[in-house]
Design a protein that fits this description.
- There is one protein chain.
- The strands form 4 sheets. Strands 7-6-5-4-8-1-9-10-2-11 form a 10-stranded mixed sheet, with helices on both faces.
- It is α/β, with parallel strands linked by helices.
- Helix 6 packs parallel to helix 8 and helix 7 runs parallel beside helix 9.
- It is built from 13 helices and 18 strands.
Length: 560
C-alpha cells in the first residue's frame, strides 16, 4: 500500500512540475515586434485623427486604439529628424548638424557633428536590437549617408531597400528622365537599383517590399524590427491613378477655409484647446480670394492630388497591418507612426545651386500628379497642413516642428491597464523614441564605447511606462530645455515659453518670445513686454548651444 501511495505521490509531483513548467513558459514575456512608420513631410493636421478631412481610416484606427501625441517635436527638416530618431540624441551631435551636405558653412566643415552622415559617435537603436537577436528590415527613404558606418546594413539592418537622398526624382520610377535635372540613388543592401516594374509607385512598392522581407525570413521565431519610411508625401507630389481623382472638388473653397474646418475638428477631438486661434497666413501665401478662377482651379487640383497621395499611403499602412494580422504577428507588435517634420509649404523648384530641377516638367492641370509632372502644394496649402500652427517645414516655428505621432498595435491592447484612444498633451521629442524602444525590448544603451567606437550618451527619455500605465503622464521636467537650430534659424523652449529667431520675411530677424501654454500658434510676440523672461530664454538657448555644439553657419542662407 505504501509503495502504491509513494508511486501516486511521485506521479502527482511530476504532473504538477510539468504543469508549472508549461504555465511558466506561457507567461514568459516574449519581446515585442517593433514597427516604425515614417511619413515624409506629412503635416500636423493631415490625418483624420488630427482634424483632417483626408480619409485615413487605417491610421485613425491606430490612433483610436493607441496614444496620440499633440505636443511631439521633431526637427524642421528630414535628415536631422531621422538622425535624432535613430540615435536618441540631438542631430548636431549625431552628424547632421547641417542638412546632410547642404547648408554647411565654412565654419562648420570638419567639425564633429557636421559630418553629413550618421556618425561614429552614435549607436542606432536598430544595432542594439540586432545584438538581441531581432531580425531587422529597412525600406524607403534613408537620407543618413552611404559610407561604411552610415548605411542601413552597418546600422543593424539585415535587409534594406533604401532611397539615399532626401528628394525622390519621381514616385513612379527610379531612373532620371528628361524632365528632371537631378538623380536619386536607390540600393537594395549594397547593390544599386535603377529599374522597377511598370506599375511602380513608391508607397505601394515600399510596403510590398517590407512584407516580402518579413515573408521570406527564415528566423520567424525571433521578433522583428521593421522600418517603413515612405517617400510620400515629399515633392514631387505624385499620385497613382487609383487615387488621383478621389478628392475632386474637395478643395474649391481654398486653404483659408480648410484651415478653419481643420481647427474646428481639432477642437472637437481634443487635439487643441477650445481657445486656440489660427496663426496668420505665411507671407508667401496669396489670399485665396485674390486668385483668379483659373488660379483657384489649378491650386485646388494641387491639393486634390496631395490628398490622394496621403490616402494611398494610408491604404498601404492598412495593407501592412492586414498582413501582420493574417500571419498572427500583430498581437505582439508595437507601432510608432510619425512625420519627420511639418508639412512642406515652400514655393517652386529651385535647388540650392540655383538650378531649376524640374523646369521641363509637364505641370498642366491635366497632367498634375502624373508621370512627367512636378507638383507641389505651395505656401497656402502648406500652411493648411500645419493647422493651426505658424509656418511649415524648414522653420523652427511650431508649424515646422510639431508632428503627428501615434503609438499603437496589438501588443499594447493586450495590457490590462492600457487605455485606448487617449491624447497626451505633454511635451516629447523625437529623441525619445530610441530609448523608449530600447526599454520596451529590454536592452541598455552602452556607456562610452560600442564595438570599439567611442560614443556619446543618448539625451532622449524613454516613455515606455506610458504604454503600460497612464498614457497621459509627463516624461520631461518642466524646466527641461528643448532647443532647435537649422538654416541659421534657432529656437529654445522651456516650461511652456519659447523664443525663436527667423530672418525676414518669415520672421523679425531678432528674438521673438511666445507663451505657448496660452499662445501655441505664436501670434503674440511678448519680447518687449517680458524682458526678464526673454533674457531667461536667451540664457537657456546659450546652454543648449554649448551642450550640443551648435555652430551657426557663416555661409549663405540657401533655403527659403
Amino acid at each position: 500500500m505504501k509503495n502504491l501511495i509513494h508511486s501516486l505521490l511521485v506521479i502527482t509531483l511530476l504532473f504538477c512540475s510539468c504543469q508549472s513548467s508549461t504555465s511558466t513558459e506561457k507567461t514568459k514575456q516574449i519581446p515585442p515586434n517593433i514597427l516604425v512608420i515614417i511619413v515624409d513631410d506629412l503635416g500636423y493636421s493631415d490625418l483624420g485623427s488630427y482634424g483632417g478631412e483626408i480619409e485615413t481610416k487605417n491610421i485613425d484606427d491606430l490612433a483610436n486604439n493607441g496614444i496620440q501625441f499633440s505636443n511631439f517635436y521633431a526637427s524642421p527638416n528630414c535628415s536631422p529628424s531621422r538622425a535624432m530618431l535613430m540615435s536618441g540624441m540631438d542631430h548636431h551631435k549625431a552628424g547632421i548638424g547641417a542638412m546632410s551636405g547642404r547648408m554647411i558653412g565654412p565654419n562648420q566643415k570638419g567639425v564633429p557633428g557636421y559630418e553629413g552622415y550618421l556618425n561614429e559617435q552614435t549607436v542606432a537603436f536598430s544595432e542594439l536590437l540586432k545584438d538581441e537577436g531581432y531580425r531587422n528590415y529597412y525600406v524607403g527613404k534613408w537620407h543618413l549617408g552611404t559610407n561604411d558606418i552610415a548605411h542601413p546594413n552597418s546600422r543593424g539592418f539585415d535587409q534594406a531597400w533604401w532611397q539615399v537622398e532626401g528628394s525622390p526624382n519621381s514616385h513612379f520610377n527610379l531612373t532620371p528622365n528628361k524632365y528632371i535635372k537631378q538623380k536619386t540613388n536607390y540600393y537594395e543592401n549594397k547593390e544599386a537599383k535603377q529599374k522597377a516594374s511598370q506599375d511602380f509607385f513608391s508607397s505601394n512598392f515600399y510596403t510590398d517590399k517590407l512584407i516580402g522581407f518579413l515573408e521570406k525570413d527564415t528566423k520567424k521565431e525571433n521578433p522583428f524590427l521593421g522600418v517603413l519610411s515612405f517617400s510620400a508625401v515629399h515633392i514631387p507630389i505624385h499620385c497613382p491613378q487609383s487615387h488621383i481623382d478621389l478628392y475632386k472638388g474637395k478643395y474649391k473653397e481654398g486653404y483659408e477655409e480648410l484651415r478653419k474646418a481643420r481647427l474646428l475638428k481639432q477642437k472637437q477631438k481634443g487635439i487643441v484647446a477650445n481657445d486656440v486661434r489660427l496663426s496668420a497666413l505665411p507671407p508667401t501665401a496669396i489670399p485665396w480670394d485674390s486668385l483668379s478662377i483659373e488660379e483657384k482651379n489649378y491650386n485646388a487640383r494641387r491639393m486634390e492630388i496631395y490628398a490622394g497621395m496621403v490616402d494611398n499611403m494610408d491604404d498601404n499602412v492598412g495593407k501592412l497591418i492586414a498582413y501582420l494580422k493574417k500571419t498572427e504577428q500583430y498581437d505582439n507588435t508595437i507601432i510608432f507612426l510619425m512625420s519627420d517634420n511639418g508639412g512642406a509649404g515652400f514655393n517652386g523648384w529651385q535647388s540650392p545651386n540655383g538650378v531649376k530641377r524640374f523646369e521641363n516638367a509637364n505641370n498642366s492641370i491635366e497632367n498634375l500628379g502624373k508621370p512627367g509632372s512636378a507638383n507641389y502644394i505651395g505656401a497656402g496649402w502648406g500652411s493648411a497642413t500645419s493647422t493651426p500652427f505658424r509656418l511649415f517645414k524648414r522653420h523652427i516655428s511650431e508649424g515646422g516642428l510639431r508632428i503627428p505621432m501615434i503609438v499603437s498595435g496589438g501588443y499594447l491592447n493586450s495590457k490590462p491597464k492600457f487605455k485606448k484612444g487617449l491624447v497626451n498633451h505633454n511635451i516629447f521629442s523625437i529623441r525619445d523614441i530610441a530609448p523608449t524602444i530600447q526599454e520596451l525590448v529590454g536592452v541598455s544603451y552602452p556607456s562610452n564605447n560600442y564595438k570599439g567606437r567611442s560614443i556619446l550618451p543618448q539625451t532622449g527619455k524613454s516613455f515606455s511606462r506610458l504604454l503600460k500605465e497612464n498614457p497621459t503622464q509627463p516624461i520631461h521636467n518642466e524646466d527641461e530645455i528643448f532647443g532647435w537650430e537649422l538654416f541659421k534659424r534657432k529656437a529654445v523652449q522651456k516650461n511652456g515659453w519659447k523664443i525663436i529667431w527667423i530672418e525676414p520675411e518669415f520672421g523679425k530677424g531678432k528674438w521673438e518670445l511666445y507663451h505657448l501654454k496660452e499662445d501655441p500658434t505664436e501670434r503674440d510676440d511678448l519680447a518687449n513686454t517680458h524682458p526678464e523672461k526673454l533674457n531667461e530664454l536667451i540664457a537657456a538657448w546659450q546652454i543648449y548651444q554649448k551642450e550640443n555644439n551648435v555652430i551657426i553657419s557663416n555661409g549663405e542662407l540657401l533655403f527659403p
